[in-house]
Design brief:
single chain; mainly alpha; 3-stranded antiparallel sheet; about 5% strand
């Protein structure tokens, strides 16, 4: 569905604009490689296109436009994009200011700059994420773009990764903003639940009430304040000045830090009266404005001065847009636009200063104003707008802010005036520090900046003045942005470049005069002790968090797997069992019958006895055998219940598990460490409680069902898919998403285990055996000087003579190919009989395990001379390719297709694409088994042999 109005530009699409940004970001590295710095102008044009598209409806009053796409119709999930007056202004800022900043990059960086292509892609990608954020009308989509800005800002801030300060700044930024983002995620989910919809516009139009909504709003504000660097989350933004200057201008003047202000502005019309809103928004905003403004007067680095000034201005904007009245919102949106213009101009001006003189330290700069008069003039215009000097857009915004609180909260009005005085003071400090002639400071050599480097600075600074003079014409579009806010007694106020003499003008004059006085105090202000050092606060907090985590880990993670399992089971019993007990009395018996046949009771009894005996056993080998027996007992119950697929899988998994346990036990003591009878009793009781709880929960869940189970439709769905095995069809057709995810997880887990075990030594085929080679030899028996005959096995010559078994070798060789054929039978008949890719893969893996147990690692390589990683990767590719192939032969991912054919000798053959899916699973499982045999088998063999040789060497040295 696409809804719009005739006033919206015909043929333009929000999705196309977003797609253009993403395509430009993807193409940026290629363009930079081909064109060098010449790639930035076309990239800037793409960003500016969004501003050009949005400026007309913003100025002329177009109707809101909404576009939606069905994502998961069965769950009612849709993706919504929406543009309205506030969105259009943000698009003008992101696209217009961002485009000029990208253009500026073409002359700021040299052609030999390393990683310039990646930087260009990340910068444009950040613009795409910001564009998606302001267009999103869906809470989930909003969060996705929100976190994309977090990730991309991390990459941009840490652009110069060789510098430790850049790495620390990027880490600090992502830690703080991600914390806020996680809190916001919880808030968004709660808000959507309380409202019954994820549409942001619908929630604002009909806001939910109650404690859930209030809690949600507070959590969302945590995310907004952390993104906009307000107290107490403002620690990250000054450190982010380690990024290149264009990044600072884009992220911290025109885009990222505005995201929090934007979200507060979106929610304020609906939730400004919610409990907790005003203390958080107004309290944190005023504290940020004052503390950061004061700190800016102490800085010597021009970028840090502007950074603290940015934090101060963000606090000012949050107070205005979060106050909840229309005039304050009008002022807030005006300041938002003005700030994007003057602060980006000033950041870019600092880049020019640094580019021309090689320093940003105001103590080392002198007389630059005379050397670069154009830059000086642009900086004066931008700083005047920042300070709120009349005839600038900043003045129009601040005058509206004073008007919004006249006759209301006098204390808040005074604090805003104090903050404005600080703004005027650090504006003067910036101009004096960058351009004034200072006594005792030698002028620096200046490299004249080029026209293309100066042009964005001049355009942005001039826009702040020109738009300020035309503030009256800007009133209509910004009033439309403020329309959702409630009207106060100042409802008739409108923007203007000049309202005449009045109290707002007087407050402006007083704040400017106070700013001049504060600037004049200069060094006296610098000597006033500061309350805190942001960097130190962050470092101390992280150190405390690391210490706490270390202490907690040392307390609960003591390396005992039985203790970990005990805690997990006790927690499960406590939570699930508590829910079962609180449900008493139950409305009806949990079961009508205990068993279907006496055989089930006998097998169940033997299974419980084997499990209890495994707990009481003191020998590790006995425990493995008894636990395997209990698993086989469960599989037998599946057989008796008429579930052959489950039984087959259970038998195979238990068999493979026994082999894995045997491989591991070779490196462990034969007996357990001393366990008291009390410990064994506790383990037995906890195991019994866990089993009883699981049984009760299962029975209660089955009894609590009111709707017809979805499995009732499985037989019909299986017949429709052309399969006779409901279980197999369910796994590869009806629930194929689950199988796809599990297969990928298995592949990744196997690769991860292999990577950790072979981190220091690459996994490769064993070296060719030769004379003296022996596998599984006994220390008292020396290896043969000549290799024995191969015998029945391909690598039989590598085995130590005392460990060879002719019976085992004959059996292994005789059954290997038969078992492999059986695994293929299970694979190809799964759609109509018990089996499948998973079962077939385990059977093939067991065949390989037999070859390994009979002949060792060399025999394993002879049996399967293929790296496990290749099988895992191939299987994952086949599984994923089959899933995506559904789009080619159907209409959705994982959709199956079938065909029937009559082949010679074979007769009628029914082919389904899900067979390809099964083949992928088959390969993944074989790769997993090979990984296990390599890690727990061949690698342990290597370690054992190495230990034996070291022991023999030490014995020889002692004898010598």
């Amino acid at each position: 569905m696409i809804a719009g109005s005739p006033s919206t530009p015909a043929g333009a699409s929000l999705l196309l604009l977003l797609a253009a940004y993403c395509a430009a970001a993807a193409a940026a590295p290629v363009l930079v490689r081909a064109l060098g710095r010449g790639a930035f102008p076309p990239l800037a044009a793409v960003l500016a296109a969004a501003a050009g598209w949005a400026v007309w409806p913003w100025l002329r009053g177009g109707a809101p436009r909404t576009e939606s796409w069905s994502w998961i119709p069965g769950l009612g999930l849709h993706l919504y994009l929406r543009s309205d007056p506030l969105t259009w202004m943000m698009m003008v800022i992101v696209g217009g200011v961002g485009g000029l900043i990208v253009l500026y990059c073409g002359r700021y960086f040299t052609g030999a700059e390393p990683k310039l292509g990646a930087f260009a892609g990340e910068l444009v990608g950040f613009g795409a994420a910001m564009l998606g954020l302001v267009l999103a009308d869906d809470l989930v989509l909003l969060y996705v773009f929100w976190e994309l800005t977090t990730v991309l800002s991390y990459l941009l801030i840490g652009y110069d990764a060789e510098r430790g300060i850049a790495r620390r700044a990027a880490t600090q930024a992502i830690v703080i903003t991600t914390f806020g983002g996680l809190a916001m995620l919880v808030g968004l989910l709660l808000l959507g639940q309380a409202a019954g919809t994820d549409r942001l516009s619908a929630i604002v139009a009909a806001p939910p009430g109650g404690g859930t909504a209030a809690t949600a709003v507070v959590l969302i504000l945590v995310g907004a304040l952390s993104k906009s660097a307000l107290v107490p989350f403002g620690l990250w933004l000054p450190g982010a000045m380690a990024a290149p200057t264009p990044v600072s201008a884009f992220l911290h003047a025109a885009a990222m830090v505005k995201a929090g202000v934007y979200l507060v502005a979106r929610l304020a019309p609906a939730f400004a009266g919610t409990a907790g809103w005003r203390p958080i928004v107004v309290g944190c905003g005023i504290a940020t404005m004052l503390l950061a403004g004061w700190r800016a007067l102490r800085e010597h680095d021009l970028k840090l001065l502007l950074a603290y000034g940015t934090v101060s201005q963000l606090g000012f904007m949050v107070v205005l847009v979060g106050a909840g009245n229309r005039v304050a919102a009008l002022a807030g949106f005006t300041v938002l636009l003005a700030h994007a213009l003057f602060k980006s101009a000033l950041f870019l001006a600092v880049g020019v200063v640094d580019h021309s003189t090689g320093t940003r330290d105001l103590r080392k700069l002198s007389g630059l104003g005379r050397e670069t008069p154009v830059l000086f003039g642009a900086a004066i215009a931008a700083a005047a707008s920042m300070a709120g000097v009349p005839a600038t857009l900043g003045f129009a915004g601040k005058e509206a802010a004073y008007e919004a609180f006249l006759g209301g909260d006098t204390g808040l009005l005074v604090l805003l005036a104090v903050g404005s005085a600080l703004t005027a003071a650090y504006s003067l400090r910036f101009l004096w520090g960058a351009f004034a002639r200072k006594e005792g400071v030698a002028p620096r050599e200046v490299h004249r900046p080029g026209v293309l480097l100066l042009a964005p600075v001049v355009l942005l600074a001039a826009a702040g003045v020109v738009v300020g003079l035309l503030a009256g014409q800007l009133n209509a579009p910004i009033e439309r942005e403020a329309a959702p806010f409630p009207v106060t007694r100042h409802g008739g106020y409108h923007l203007s470049a000049w309202h005449g003499f009045g109290l707002p003008l007087l407050l402006t004059a007083v704040s400017l005069a106070a700013g001049v006085a504060l600037f004049g105090l200069g060094r006296r202000v610098a000597r006033v002790p500061q309350f805190f050092e942001p960097e130190q606060v962050y470092l101390r907090f992280m150190h405390g968090l690391s210490t706490f985590a270390l202490q907690l880990t040392g307390t609960v993670q003591r390396g005992s797997l039985p203790d970990y399992l005990l805690i997990i089971l006790l927690a499960a019993v406590g939570l699930a069992g508590g829910a079962v007990v609180t449900g008493l009395p139950w409305p009806e018996p949990l079961g009508d019958r205990i068993w279907d046949s006496p055989a089930q009771a006998l097998v169940a009894l033997l299974t419980v006895i084997a499990a209890a005996a495994a707990i009481r056993a003191r020998d590790r080998g006995q425990t493995v055998v008894l636990s395997g027996a209990s698993g086989f007992g469960v599989a037998t119950l599946f057989v008796l219940q008429g579930a052959p697929d489950l039984a087959l899988t259970q038998f195979l998994v238990e068999t493979a598990s026994l082999i894995v346990f045997v491989l591991v036990l070779r490196r462990l003591p034969a007996r357990f460490s001393t366990r008291s009878p009390a410990q064994r009793t506790v383990h037995l009781l906890v195991g019994a409680l866990a089993g009883l709880t699981a049984t009760a929960v299962t029975l209660l869940a089955a009894r609590a069902r009111h709707a017809v189970p979805v499995s009732a439709a499985y037989p019909g769905a299986a017949r429709e898919a052309g399969g006779g095995n409901i279980v197999a069809v369910t796994l590869v057709d009806l629930r194929s998403w689950d199988t796809l995810g599990e297969s990928v997880v298995i592949a990744l887990a196997a690769l991860g285990v292999t990577s950790m075990v072979f981190a220091r030594r690459p996994l490769s085929a064993p070296p060719p055996p030769g004379p003296g080679t022996s596998v599984w030899g006994v220390e008292e028996i020396t290896a043969l000087d000549e290799a024995p005959p191969a015998g029945w096995l391909a690598a039989g010559s590598t085995l130590a003579a005392e460990r060879r078994s002719i019976v085992f070798e004959v059996v292994a060789q005789a059954i290997f190919h038969t078992v492999l054929l059986y695994s293929l039978f299970l694979l190809f008949t799964a759609h109509s009989a018990p089996g499948g890719g998973f079962a077939g893969g385990i059977v093939a893996g067991l065949a390989l395990a037999v070859r390994y147990l009979a002949g060792g690692p060399f025999e394993l390589w002879e049996a399967a001379p293929v790296p496990a990683g290749a099988l895992l990767g191939t299987g994952a590719i086949i599984v994923s390719g089959t899933a995506l192939g559904g789009l080619a032969w159907g209409h959705a991912v994982l959709e199956s297709a079938s065909a029937d054919a009559h082949l010679p000798l074979l007769g009628h053959v029914h082919l389904v694409t899900s067979l390809l899916f099964e083949i992928g699973v088959y390969l993944i499982v074989i790769g997993l088994v090979l990984t296990v045999l390599s890690v727990l088998g061949a690698e342990i063999d290597r370690q054992t042999e190495a230990d034996r040789r070291r022991g023999a060497g030490r014995t020889g040295e002692g004898a010598g």
